[in-house]
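yo, AI-2E family transporter is done. seq:
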Amino acid sequence: MTLRSVFRGWIEHYFSDEEAVILLVVLVLGFAVVIWLGKMLAPFLTALVIAFLLQGAVNGLTRRRVPHFLAVMLVFLAFIGVLLAMALILMPLIWNQLINLVQETPRMFASVQQLLDDLQVRYPQLVTPDQIQTWIGMAGREVTQLGQRALTLSLASLGNLVGLIVYLVLVPILVFFMLKDRDRLVGFIVSLLPRNRGLMTRVWQEMDDQIANYVRGKFTEIIIVGSVAFFTFAFFGLPYSALLAVLVGLSVLVPYIGAAVATLPVAAVAGFHFGLGDQFLYVIVAYGVIQALDGNVLVPVLFSEAVNLHPVSIILAVLFFGGVWGFWGIFFAIPLATLLKALVYAWPRGLKQRRQEVSREEQAAGP
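structure:
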């Protein structure tokens, strides 16, 4: 068997059906549009995600016999209220805490240097003065680079202020019309697809529940974990509670890695503020309980549809899609990986089922 015959057999197996070719073209065009026009279409894509999140609430109200337009208005007004609360309350609080943290950095460095000096006195054979100076120099360079990046980001943000205002105005408008005219928009998109779309329908049905469950569940998980972390840190009197809580909430986007990464700033702030005493231990234990409850209680409750992916597949998906699309790539890494898995499993099975249906139709038609 030659390489040419193997390749021809592979093509005939996967792409001999018209639906398979059309599905491949749709997927390639969709990914190409997002990759090359992602920045231009960012308000539209953001509004699409938010509308998808809010659609569940609209459906819940309509099931309780609330008129569709009234349900859309109630959900949209609630969304605007949350958006204003974040813009007027949460963001200024986080910004002030971030400024205070930057201002307190020199004192933290002094504490670290004092700790290293104590280690050098206690263990002169393990920690030398040259090592201390090397560590301090490395840390200083990292902080300097971080400050330069922050300054560059701030200057760039000032230049894009008009764009940001347009973004904040355009996204709510798009969300409203996507909720209000959902059936009309979906009908228009469906009308562009071919009539014979059995394979696409099977793949979408397999993915619809998982995507909806994952996106809404992950958003709910971020809110719950971040809120619990904020009240826990505030209870112990930990400074920068809001800033750390936002970091802990967003850490759930990256499975396995996010919790470990978020532990470092929490432990660092607690260590600088409380010292390595009982209060520090209480904060770390409380943070560990939050992570344990999230992984063992909250996640199974929120995600009713299990995402059966190997941890290596999840990490690779986060790295790839995060590198391509940034934050949204990380957010949708698991659904996209699940979509690819569903395609791999449904494609040959769907083609085989299609051939069997055609064969039965031909047999029923007779000679």
